[in-house]
Amino acid sequence: MQIFTDDVDYKRFVYLLGDVVDEFKIECWNYCLMPNHYHATLRPSCPNLSEAVRRLNSLYAQWWNRRHERVGHVFQGRFKDQIVQREGYLLALCRYVALNPVRASLTTRPEDWAWSSYAATVGLRSPPPFLAASCVLQQFGEGEVRILQTRFSDYVLSVDKHECMDDRIRSNERVLGNGMFKRTVRAELPDIPEADSAATISLEAEKAAII
Questions:
Q1: 160-183: per-residue pLDDT in tens?
Q2: Which has the least CB within 10 A, 72, 73, 155, 162?
Q3: Which ranges of 27-129 would DSSP assign to H, the alpha helix?
Q4: 209 beta partners
Q5: Which structural domains are found in the chain, ordered by start?
Q6: What is the pTM of this model?
């Protein structure tokens, strides 16, 4: 089922996303809205991610039902989340999110999809106030913003294939990282099983999540 039927729907969701991440003090590194789902890379400052996403989904669902004169659920079940290691994995995640509309054949280049943060991150569009694009660019080291934007664009558009990493992002892995990172996370959060999309997560500063 489509949860975004036109530009009004897309714009409303982005507006609500900005409000929620600001209210819950969450960094939004990127986002991509697709016709029937959305992705975001989020970095909470305290263990409130589940509450924040429930709030976002609830606000949008109530608004969407009123606008379209519908009743019932707009989102199916609980959102999927992953805790992602920064080193070696986070950039692959950012690339995965940016390329969603290309993989879905909605556009041939990620910057042409209006409902993604990619064009703003690479300097082709004004970013929304809540977007922490600099956090993505800083993964490429120090330097002028324009240089870092080019590095990120080159990385996203490179011909190298990352099917293995994409498969892991699409999987039910709750923790995306190397063995040591997984052991550290599970020592801190013992309730997280090997593959479970229903557990509540708590994130610390060096971790990020995709939803």
A1: 655 667 878 877 788 888 888 888
A2: 72
A3: 49-68, 91-98, 100-103, 118-121
A4: 42, 83
A5: 7-210 (3.30.70.1290)
A6: 0.84
